[in-house]
Amino acid sequence: MEPDKPTFYNAHHSPIGAFATFTLGCKGATGGLGIELAQPANQPIYIGLQSSDGASLDMLPFYESGGGEDPAARFQVEQAPGEGIKEQWDAVSSLTLRPFRDEEIHRNMAASSDVWRAGDLLVRVISPVMPIPDPDTADADQFKLAIVPAVLVEFEVDNRACDHERKAVFGYVGTDPYSAMRRLDDTLPGFAGVGQGTHTALAAARGTAVSALGFSIDDILSIHLPQNCQFGLGATGLLTVTASPRCVSTFRFAICFFRHGCATAGLSTNYLYSRYFANIEEVAAFALNHFDQLRQRGDEADRRFSAAHLSDDQRWMLAHSIRSYYGSTQLLQHDGKALWVVNEGEYRMMNTFDLTVDQLFYEMMLNPWTVKNVVDQFVDRYSYEDEVTEPGDAVRHPGGISFTHDMGVGNVFSRPGYSSYEKFGLRGCFSHMTHEQLVNWILCAAVYVEGTKDEAWCIGHLNMLESCLTSMVNRDHYLEEHRNGVMSLESTRTTGGAEITTYDSLDESLGQARANGYLAVKCWAAYVALRHIFTRHGLAAQAERAHTQAVRCANTITSAVTKNGELPALLEGDHPSRIIPVIEGLVFPKHTGCEDALNAGGEFAGLINALGRHLRSVLVPNVCLFDDGGWKLSSTAKNSWLSKIYLCQHVARAVLGIDGDEVTSRADRAHVAWLTEEKNGYWAWSDQMVAGVAMASRYYPRGVTACLWLNEE
Fold this sequence. Notes:
Number of strands: 27
Distance between the termini: 20 Å
Largest sheet: 8 strands, antiparallel
Number of helices: 18
Shape: elongated
Radius of gyration: 27 Å
Mean pLDDT: 95
Low-confidence stretches: 85-92
Strand order of the largest sheet: 6-7-8-9-16-13-12-11
């Protein structure tokens, strides 16, 4: 990481599939241990080291200093504040808390490790980043390593210059109103720990750390009698370790999470990790006993996602987005069957399909079985049949199969065939995304088949793929002679409204689905992928039908090119907007076995060359570039989405051969600045940036589209 990057921004440190996070990085009580939250837990986190002169406890600044109500006061009616305590601890003085100065603190974040250095203290937080074995075939021991709901922390104290011991502390203030803080020493033989109820904890090996509870950190540091470490009324828990003189001491901790019992409504599930761990004590013991193996996996991830051809800015954005992705992941089980869910950041919608199709590339790199798992869930529970109509005409025509926008929200699975998001009779946000989700299912299935060569699954889903082709053609037009390869008809699910795209909060340049240039290129990619699959399986008629539609679609797009070489956002009418995501669909042919379709001298040369000319034309200030060099997805909207920018940057370089300062260096600097801006940093990685300000889609998983950059070497 470049030294001039800001230090204080929140980042996730999350187990895989636990929908849990240890968020840390912004000053103040802005992070903490959270499960299933839409934002950071906002808990004070205490990380500090006794000064070399022994007078103070030098702290990383993740807590609020001073002020606030004395938590002991409500127990001491008609007494002076602290009077009862003072009588007992008259001779005891606590260490003074002193935040390290900003210039003393240095941070280096990679995909798995987040390393903080301040004075003689080094703190390394290690998050799991590794493939998840397929739960149907996995070795139990390897599977447990991947899904243990814990994050590792390592302290190194350089005490070589001191002739005396020094204390270091690690703790937090529990904020759950439903359960008290406790010591794990009472229930976890061989270990010391503090935790809240049964669901969050910090733990270390007994003998290396001493645990204590109190009203505050000052209260704990003032304890004289060891028996009072067990005081149960306070919400503060602290682990204290002691560094020996004249050496470097290392201390290991596990941050643990656990959710007992039924985790969701609508469909009764529990966390799959509960198949292997009975409680948070077992999680802590396993994580600490396998610390070396888990750290080795973390080191491997740091190397894998720090490829030499990436710039420092790119490495940082990729690492940041990977962390945010895992903070939203949830591995559940229903009737013994695994269910993979990625929650939509602050919105907490479950398996939002227009995120699935973008996160697809990262999941294919590490655990392709999750892609199959999600597309099968959509078929089994979240598919539906509809009819279609022409705009302004109530006559119904055959539609076909499609899929919902999501599977539910906030741990509540929605009823079969319906999402939590889509309403009826609307023309904007919250309307249906019927056509786009149909295209997304096809593309996810095609990428999965090509990437895994899972022929058995493909053959078992050929009928579904045929149904999807029929549905796409029907949504073009009900009359053969009027078909042009692009969506023209509206789903009856809109009930007189209009379909939208994933860009629901933008203007019609990207929000309207019908005749949308962005969606049209994705339709072309879907037709090309279907032709490839049907040809490979000897379904000649279906392959020819898909090919005819692909050609029609490409011709419709290229015929809309303006005199100055640009494509309008909408392929009908005279729309003034110009958009970058019209190139987005070009990412798929390389991942569906159809790379020939991208050949600038091949069958679809007209489309590929037109999209290249379009991007060169619009990637200029006052059109699709902000003043700072950041990308503006639409010329008529200030709302720009980083996940889509990352994807389109990849397409520009790897498919269209366009690079330069406006595509990479200057653009990346601007995008890093957006994420690290003080008002944005609280939300970790965020997607929707309105003129550089995180206004929506915060705490978000979709930024892993940046993984595509790894393929550009």
